[in-house]
Amino acid sequence: MLPAPKEIRELTGLTPRDLGPGILESTEPLVLRGLLAHWPAVAAARASTGAADAYLRRFYRDATVTAMLGTPETGGRFFYNEDLSGFNFAPVRVRLDRVLSELERYRGAAKEPAIYVGSTTIDTCLPGFHDENTIDLGGRDALGSIWIGNRTRIAAHYDLPDNLACVVAGRRRFTLFPPQQVANLYIGPLDLTPAGQAISLVDFHDPDLERFPRFAQAMEHAQAAELEPGDALFIPSMWWHHIEALGEFNVLVNYWWRQSPDYMDTPMNALMHALMSVRDLPLEQRKAWQELFRHYVFEADEGTAAHIPEQARHSLGPLDGDAVRAIRAQLLKRMNR
């Protein structure tokens, strides 16, 4: 029997004005109960599913979105096909109001297809929504997105930005794992993914412990919470999270932001480059490069280049937008030889 996840730490009685660095820069997940209870969108959802649907339609302006459609046999789990050569769902471009109508059509059905609109910019598809449903993130340049669907399951994955996930309608269960559990979550391909991020291959509803035995170790470090309309969850950068929508109509709004300058590349580019240039070196050479990465990247400090005159440090000195563009140009030139 798998260990039960621990409960995510909860804070109550907060308002959006209370979202200081202690919360938005936390390195541990936090449940913020009732944080958004004052939102009109939440009030509509608490009234009824129909009211929540009608509230969203108020802001609709002929927007087209990408919807993911799965057969009832998927059980709402958006995943790969049997041999991991493709996926068990079909993405389609469709008007958002048609998606809402399809969700209404299958409401209460014994066998419903899986319908999911993920990571769609709110200001693009529902202009004006933010005017009524506001949140102060302390000047952070956050991207606000909306997620709409029925009973769906999103495999455990990580995101590079910090994430404030806000439940507007329905209920969602989140199961989180710290970054150190990557080896125990059995991650699938890095370059063929259902929605852009690599995912765990473990079915959380029916984990195959013969195929994935270390998942039991991951569950020893798992944290979980079930959120209602008006609740929010802060998910720190790089934490793995599995999300299950439990209601027949679910709406989530989330905000992503990075604690790093805009000119920084995504570290995933460095990882993919290391796969093709470092991973298959002889063992002793890999160890040598591991030491170089430790020295220049993972444990770099003021002493790393202190022996070099400041004007001669180049990429070893403080970086800014111009310095990063120069490094990127050098890399592109070398890779295109």
From TrEMBL:
InterPro entries: Cupin_8 (IPR041667), JmjC_dom (IPR003347). Gene3D superfamilies: Cupin. Pfam families: Cupin_8. Residues 79-272 form the JmjC domain. PANTHER family: HYPOXIA-INDUCIBLE FACTOR 1 ALPHA INHIBITOR-RELATED, HYPOXIA-INDUCIBLE FACTOR 1-ALPHA INHIBITOR. This is Cupin-like domain-containing protein. It comes from Massilia yuzhufengensis.
